[in-house]
Amino acid sequence: MLGALVLALAACGGKDKSASSVDEQPAKAEVVIKASNWKFDQAEYIVPKDTPVKIILENTEGAHGIKVTGTDINLGPGKQSTVVTLKAGTYDFRCSIMCGSGHAGMVSKLIVQ
Ligand SMILES: [Cu+2]
């Protein structure tokens, strides 16, 4: 009885090839934003406009988040990536988690062009 149940679960759980549970469109480009105490690794990140771009947050030190003004991008330890399509422009972003003494200085820009 138990064995059959395990088998059934294994059958369902295998290979989720772009499963429907994922609410994201396939990305055509990606950018990795690395956050540490207390900065982002670049002063600006450039991504293509009108293109699905995967935005990936990588915390290399400490716990930080990203909230990008004027977009739906809101990443943090619970959600490390998202796919967005943006119009051309410059979007400011900052750390969204109160991470310590350098928090206020954790600002950068997403340049969409
Ligand atoms: Cu912070």
Any overview of this molecule?
By secondary structure, the chain is mainly beta. The protein contains 1 helix and 9 strands, in the order αβββββββββ. The strands form 2 sheets. Strands 3-9-8-5-6 form a 5-stranded mixed beta sheet, with no helix packed on it. Strands 2-1-4-7 form a 4-stranded mixed beta sheet, with no helix packed on it. The longest helix is centred in the first third of the chain and has 12 residues, at 2-13. Residues 13-22 have low confidence and may be disordered. Copper (II) ion binds at residues 64, 95, 97-99, 103, 106. One of its GO terms (molecular function) is copper ion binding. It comes from Cohnella pontilimi. InterPro entries: CcO_II-like_C, Cupredoxin, EfeO_Cupredoxin.
